TrEMBL record:
Residue ranges of the TM segments: 21-44, 64-84
Cofactor: how bound: Binds a copper A center.
Taxonomy, superkingdom: Bacteria
Protein name stated in the entry: Cytochrome c oxidase subunit 2
Native source species: Shinella fusca
Length: 314
């Protein structure tokens, strides 16, 4: 496909090209199955428009194998397309472990991107070509939806939780991104672009853009400014969970269950500390739901993930 068809932009990844192939092949199948029906309707309507006596003295001849084949063959073809499309869909939820992780905050009416080294962007996202990229997204206000037509990807961004999507863009260029969920008066202008660069150019862009601190380093500063270290510091006299190595570790709960301390759990523990209370600790942590914005929560989560003993972000 090419950009001369306005509603069908060019493909910027192997995944988008496979989606195009799936759509094209399925369209051919549907036309092949339905065209004979419509053609015969026209033929018979024309041929027998004035009516014709039917000979009913003998039962019509039946070809069982013919009838079975025109039922079974389309059925098997549709099953094949189901398996193909399911494989494509399932792949969206299994990003490579080495994927570059970029945080995204959606708010009326802009997209904010934060790279692991701390570089920030608004309504423009730079990514390296040929390398997997995973976007971890949160909304500051209402439901948004990040849509990149050239990648054939769209993911809702919902308040109160993290959502993610990943891709490997292999064709350098600038591609449109948009919000595909009505989000208020200026929804139509909530857009931007994805800039796919050669790895060397991307590395140069990171260096030229520069930043004073990484996201985790900014989170460390915020951790102290908001008083979190007063309870969670190992030297604190307050009985609170030790955060070192907490990320992706099983956490026993007061309710008797167990939860994995992933990014969503860390976020909920900051904003809704009474929802899942860790076993053996008093429920004394205040909520920061109306104190921190989504960007500050991302910084704190990144800091906790980076503490000694923690695992890589998943």
């Amino acid at each position: 496909m090419s950009d001369f068809i306005a509603l069908w932009p060019g493909a910027a990844s192997a995944y988008s090209r496979e989606v195009d192939l799936l759509i094209g092949a399925f369209t051919v199948l549907i036309v092949a199955l339905s065209a004979p029906v419509f053609i015969l309707i026209v033929v018979f309507a024309t041929k027998y428009r004035r009516g014709k006596p039917a000979n009913r003295r003998h039962a019509p001849d039946r070809n069982v194998w013919l009838e079975v084949s025109w039922t079974l063959v389309p059925f098997l073809l549709l099953i094949g397309f189901y398996i193909w499309s399911t494989h494509l869909f399932a792949g969206l939820y299994h990003p490579p472990a080495e994927a570059l992780e970029i945080d995204v905050i959606a708010k009326q009416w802009m997209w904010k991107f934060r790279h692991p080294e701390g570089q920030g962007e608004i309504n423009e996202l730079h990514v390296p070509a040929g390398e997997p990229v995973r976007l971890v997204m949160a909304s500051q206000d209402v439901v948004h939806s990040l849509f990149v037509p050239a990648l054939r990807l769209k993911q809702d961004v919902v308040p109160g939780r993290y959502t993610s999507m990943w891709f490997t863009a292999d064709t350098p260029g600038t591609y449109r991104l948009a919000c595909a969920e009505f989000c208020g008066a200026d929804h139509s202008v909530m857009g931007g672009s994805v800039v796919v660069m050669e790895p060397a150019d991307y590395a140069r862009w990171l260096e030229e853009t520069g930043t004073d601190r990484t996201l985790a380093a900014e989170g460390a500063v915020l951790f102290r400014q908001r008083g979190c270290s007063g309870c969670h510091d190992p030297a604190s006299t307050v009985h609170a969970p030790d955060l070192a190595g907490l990320y992706m570790r099983p956490v026993p709960l007061e309710s008797g269950g167990t939860v994995i301390a992933d990014a969503q759990y860390l976020r909920d523990s900051i904003l809704l500390p009474q929802a899942q209370i860790a076993a053996g600790y008093p429920p004394i942590m205040p909520t920061f739901a109306n104190v921190l914005d989504e960007e500050e929560v991302l910084k704190l989560v990144a800091y906790i993930q980076s503490l000694k003993g923690g695992k890589e972000r998943q």
